[in-house]
Design goal:
The protein has about 400 residues and is mainly α. It has 17 helices and no strands. Helix 9 runs antiparallel to helix 15.
Amino acid sequence: MTDQTWAGRFSSQTRLGLFYVVSYLGTGVSLPFIATYFRSRGLNGAEIGLILAVPMLARPFTGPVLAVWADGFTLRRTPLALLALGAAAGYLAMLAAPGFWGLLACWLVGMTFLTTLTPLIDVITLRRSRLDGFNYGVPRGAGSAAFIVANLAMGAILAVMAPSVIVAWITTAAIGVAVVSALILPPERVHEAGAPQLGRAERWKGLGGLLRDRTFVLAVITAGLIQGAHAFYYGFSALLWRHQGISAPMIGVLWGVGVAVEVGFMWFAEPWRRKVGPEKLLVLGGAAALLRWTAYAFAPPLWLLFPLQALHALTFAASFMASLRLIERLAPPQSASAAQAINSALSAGFVLGVGTLAAGPLFDAFGTRGYLATAAMGGLGLIGAVKLSKRTR
């Protein structure tokens, strides 16, 4: 189909929603289950934690660099397609990767390219939501719904198939993202029609200006602490729950509950979110993180895990949506990609990476008590959110 045909048959909201769906079909498997694959390759907790952490630790460098590179194209969807193909190549190579260092190199390539897609697609979706009058949370929430389907499906599949199916799944999803990016996404221009295309030097200058803005930096660090507090949960919750005797399908259900409340928050809480404002949403996210991860440190029984998983609506969804709106408000339009890349590089990158790097040894040494470290991160995020609320007021 041509762009005109897609535009005539499907709204931009639907086309963007399809991107999120295909993307999160992959993330819904890689996030909760990739540690299971690495474990099947004979790696211990510290090695798994290091592999998971390295791409995150590199994101403060790779994220802005790739965002500046992406802004050199005419259409925003072109670098999305190229990055998705690179991610697919990295994932596929894991099947033949020799040992720890080979797996680390392949995972670094795959995750570096794939995670850069998120801030780039968010820039498109935030802009189209304003111009076309739809709620950003609808297409983004469709992705979260796909996440639920993927982790429930993989939980059942792993009961009968070897963990190598995890790699096959996420590779296929990355190829699907490349196809959707190239053929289906709206042809959103990097620069407005008639506006001069900024050179590389100007794009780097805009990036430097963002880093000198103290309010912008505080917002990014605060969101990073609250999001980064998920590190131990993302990397080792499946292994810890299995140790508690919870089955793989039930682990998929638990992850599904967390993402289900995330979807509900994004789809139905838009009027309330706008009324509350992003600053207060960050405060709620920090408080919920302190409560949730403290409770997880004491291995709560299965029945209590369900309401605790429901706090994902605040620890993740509220803080994520708040950070997007704050960064969009604080950054000039010509630096939108770089601003969201910096936000993503810290919240889903460096802070989460440090937490994940520490999570491996914490898992080996303390088991569930390792959650206390991420509870402390949530507490620091709460302090930052309160300070940010006072400053922006």
